[in-house]
Amino acid sequence: MYERQHGGDLEVGSYAHRPILMSPDEIPSIAESAQSPSELPFTDDDFDLQMEQALELVPEVLRDERVGVRYAINGLLSLTPDGMPILGETSEVRGLWSVAAVWIKEAPGIAKAVAEWMTHGTPEIDPHSSDIARFYDHQRVAAHIDARSAEGFNKTYGIVHPMEQWSSNRNVRLSPINIRQRELGAVFFEAAGWERPFWYGANEGLLAEYGERVMPRAAEWESRWWSPIVNAEHLAMRDRVGMVDLAAFAIFDVDGPGATDYLQGLVVNQVEVKLGRVIYTPLLNAAGGIVADLTIIRLGRNHYRVVTGGGLGMRDKKWFTDHLPADGSAQVHDLTSALYTIGVWGPKARELVQSVTTADLSSVAFPFGTAQTVDIGGVRTLMSRISYVGELGWEIYAPMEQGLRLWDTLWAAGQPLGVVAVGIGVYATTGRLEKGYRAHGNELELDFNLVEAGMGRPTVKDADFVGKAAYLAQRAAPPAAILCTLTVDDPTSSTGVRRYMLGREPITQPDGSFLVDARGRRSYATSAGSAPSIGKHVLLSYLPSGYAVEGTKLAVEYFGERYPVTVAVVGSTPIFDPENTRIRA
Predict the structure, then answer these.
(1) Could you give the CA distance from residue 73 to residue 44 in angstroms, rounded to a whole number?
(2) What pTM does this model have?
(3) pLDDT (tens digit, 9 = 90+) per residue, 288-299?
(4) 528 neighbors 539 (Cβ within 8 angstroms)
(5) Does residue 18 carry a pLDDT above 90?
(6) How far is CA 196 from the centre of its chain?
(7) What is the CATH architecture of 250-334?
(8) Most buried one in 23, 102, 539, 568, CB count within 10 A?
(9) What's the rounded Cα separation, in Å, for the pair 56 and 52?
(10) Which fold has domain 177-248+338-434?
(11) What phi and psi, each to the nearest 5 degrees, are found at residue 518?
(12) Sign of the C-alpha dihedral, residues 249, 411, 202, 527?
C-alpha cells in the first residue's frame, strides 16, 4: 500500500499482491464512464484489509473524526506479459502505431521517443525492450497474457532479482531433446517461451574435479539463479567438449533473384561472398545506431539463411520484412519452428563429430567461417563453423523432428571423449565474456556505435546500406568511449565475503567519482560474470577514451561498496586466447 500527501488531503492506495484482472473489452467507453475509463467504482471489500493497515499506520490522521473520504475509486493499471510498455509500429498494419501500457512518470520521455521514432525512424533512446514487434504468437494468447500480467503485478513494487524467472505459463516451447535435458537434471530458465537449461544437475560431479576453480559464491544475492556448476561446465568444455542446446534461435531464409541486392542494402558487412560463407554482421538504423547483430549463411546464389537470437527474433523479423523490395524480388521465410540447432564446441569437437560422419571436417576442408551440408548418423544437417564461446566447433542445424536423434547420436559418440551437456550460463555468460563477444541488449544498443564497440571493420563495402552515411561519420570522428574488458582485482567486501557483480553497476574512479564521456554518458558494467579459465570476475564497460588504457585502475560500485578493477583489454581483443588459436584449430 502507499500513502502520500496531496494538497490538504492524504491519499491512501492499495498495492496488495492480489491482482484483480479486467479484460480490455470490459473497460467502459468514455461516454459510459462517470469520470474516466480508468477510474471504476470503488469496491469496499477489496480495500478492507489495506484500510485496516492504514488506520494502524497513521491513526492520528485517519481516526480523526473530522476526516472523511473525499474520493474513492478502483484505478486501472495497464499491464503486459513482460511488464514493459507496448510501443512502435505494428507488424500487421504499416502506419498503425502503439503507445500503450505507459505509466505517468515515464510518459513525457516515451512521448518524445515515439515522436522521434515515427518521424525519423531513429529515437534517441533504445526502445527495443518495449517494441510491440517483440511478441511471438504464444505470447499473444489470452491465457499467457492473464497469467503473466497477474504475476507481473505482484512483482511491480517488489524486489526482483535480475535473474529471477517467470513461474507462470511455463513449458510452452520445448526443445526436441527436452526429455534428455530432464534426465540430466537441467535447471531451466525461459527465453522467448523456450525452456532453456541454465546448467545441468548431472554435472555436479565436476565440482570436485575443478575445486576452487569453479569460483564458488558465498553471498546470497548473487548466488540466486546461479550455480558453480556453470563454471564447472565451462572448464570441462575448455578441456574436452561440450554440447549446447540452441533451440531458441530465430531463423529466417531470404531468397529470390533480388536477395543479394536486398541484403547488401540492409546489413553492414559484405554478403556478396562465396557460397557456404558465414557472415557476422550488425544492422544499423539511419542514424548509425545498432539495431541488431546476427549471422547470415550464403546457401546459394540467391539464397541466404539468417540466424538471430530468439529473444528479439520477431522484432528482427519485422526489420527484415519492413525493408523488403516492393517488386517482390526477395522474400523472407520464417523457419524458427522448423529447424533445431546444437552447438558442439571444445578441443575434442572435431574428433567427436568426425566419428559419426564420413565428411572431411579438417580445418583445410572445413575452414572457420564456412558452412556445409553434412550427414550425421542418418540425419542431414547444415554445419556452420562459428563459435560464441571461443572454441573449435560448429552450430549444427537439422529438421526439428530429427533433433532428438541428432542429439542422441552426438551424445553417444562423445561418451569416450568425456562430453558434457553445457547450459546457457556458459554460452551466454562465461564463454562469451572470456572472448569479449558483444551481446545485443548489453553492449549493442542505440546508445553506442560500432566504432565505440570495437566492431568497425578496416574497410567499408562499396554498396550502400541503411545507416552507412552515419557509420562513415562515426569512423571519421574520435570515439567518445571505447568498450573495454575489466578484471575485478579483489572482490572481498568489508565483511570478508567475496562479492560478484551481475551487470549494470557503475564504473567509477577509485575515489567514487563517476566516469562521464564526451557525449554525457556515465560508464557502467554492460555485462559481468565469471571467467573461470583465467580465474577472474570480468566486466565489460564503455569507458571514456582517456580511461580506456590497459592497466588503468578504476572501481566498480556494488551494494554500497567500491571494488578495485583494472582495464585488462581495450577494444575487441579477447582476454582469453587473444590470438584465437583454439577457435581456428
Answers:
(1) 10
(2) 0.95
(3) 999 999 999 999
(4) yes
(5) no
(6) 13
(7) 2-Layer Sandwich (3.30)
(8) 539
(9) 6
(10) Gyrase A; domain 2 (3.30.1360)
(11) -65, -15
(12) negative
